[in-house]
């Protein structure tokens, strides 16, 4: 797939189906654990976005609403945050969390940021934590986001660096796959977690979409998959997220059991006083409309 090629099917149809099926249900169910896992990245990404009092912000791929709430704190009662996502199960969680908060300036909408006809120039800030790597046609998607921003508006998002640079993905996956059927190697630029691993590609896409002042900065953080001594619990969580979860789905019951034992053994090797931790590496990308 080239940077700007549109699909002949409905835009992002595969992703819509995926995130409204078992994956969306799973992430909604694991919301509290996932919020804790990603907390260091979420806090740093929102700080990099620097939401200001009174601003209107768009949260792309907002999921269960953690960053919607954080941005809403930043823009204050005179601002507004609109979170958009294609996953109904996760948005239901986000709506519940917003209703339980005092942040009336926050709202969520079931929509695809790639194609949603936002009012032109309606946002000061477009933000995303791991929500923009799944577009079928990323140039067109970012043109749509650019159109939604005010002139000079800010784009800030977090995306993953390469698979091999992210032990929290690679360690469980590499432990599991010897026990499973051979896995198909995804195309590096296909929609998915690592579609924006190449910073040069990110810069090209944003430039073609009309953005200026593009900056790509590295951010590293340890992710805590479980508490010290709770290897089995950490394994049960870990095998439900990331590439290892899709790999496990390809195996028989016996193969999955063997793979899970191998993942548990790999996690036991990184169990320390601060918990069961593996490294994560991201890009923080910023640009101006």
UniProtKB/TrEMBL annotation:
Which residues does the UniProt record annotate as the domain Methyltransferase type?
Answer: 58-157
Q: Quote one Gene Ontology molecular function term.
A: S-adenosylmethionine-dependent methyltransferase activity
Keyword check for Kinase, yes or no. no
- What keywords is this UniProt entry annotated with? Methyltransferase, S-adenosyl-L-methionine, Transferase
Q: Name one GO biological process term.
A: methylation
Which superkingdom does the taxonomy of this entry point to?
Answer: Bacteria
**Alphabetical list of InterPro entries matching this protein:** Methyltransf_11, SAM-dependent_MTases_sf
Q: Tell me if Aminoacyl-tRNA synthetase is a UniProt keyword of this record.
A: no
Per its record, how is this protein called by name?
Class I SAM-dependent methyltransferase
Q: Which organism is it from?
A: Lichenibacterium ramalinae
């Amino acid at each position: 797939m080239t940077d700007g090629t549109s699909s002949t099917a409905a835009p992002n149809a595969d992703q819509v189906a995926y995130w409204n099926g078992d994956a969306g249900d799973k992430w909604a169910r694991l919301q509290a654990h996932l919020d804790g896992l990603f907390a260091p990245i979420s806090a740093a990404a929102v700080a990099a976005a620097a939401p200001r009092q009174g601003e209107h912000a768009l949260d792309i791929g907002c999921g269960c609403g953690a960053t919607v709430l954080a941005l809403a704190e930043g823009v204050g009662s005179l601002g507004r945050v609109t979170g958009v996502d294609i996953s109904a199960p996760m948005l239901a969680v986000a709506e519940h969390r917003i209703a339980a908060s005092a942040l009336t300036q926050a709202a969520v909408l079931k929509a695809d940021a790639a194609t949603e006809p936002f009012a032109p120039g309606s946002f000061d800030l477009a933000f995303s934590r791991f929500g923009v790597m799944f577009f079928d046609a990323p140039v067109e998607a970012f043109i749509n986001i650019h159109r939604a921003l005010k002139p000079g508006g800010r784009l800030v998002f977090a995306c993953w660096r390469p698979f091999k640079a992210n032990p929290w993905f690679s360690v469980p996956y590499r432990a599991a796959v010897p026990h499973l059927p051979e896995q198909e190697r995804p195309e590096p630029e296909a929609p998915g977690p690592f579609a924006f691993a190449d910073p040069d590609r990110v810069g090209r896409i944003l430039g073609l979409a009309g953005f200026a002042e593009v900056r790509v900065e590295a951010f590293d953080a340890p992710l805590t998959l479980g508490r010290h001594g709770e290897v089995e619990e950490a394994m049960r969580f870990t095998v439900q997220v990331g590439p290892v979860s899709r790999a496990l789905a390809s195996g028989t019951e016996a193969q999955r059991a063997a793979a899970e034992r191998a993942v548990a053994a790999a996690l036991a090797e990184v169990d320390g006083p601060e918990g069961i931790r593996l490294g994560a590496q991201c890009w923080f990308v910023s640009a101006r409309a």
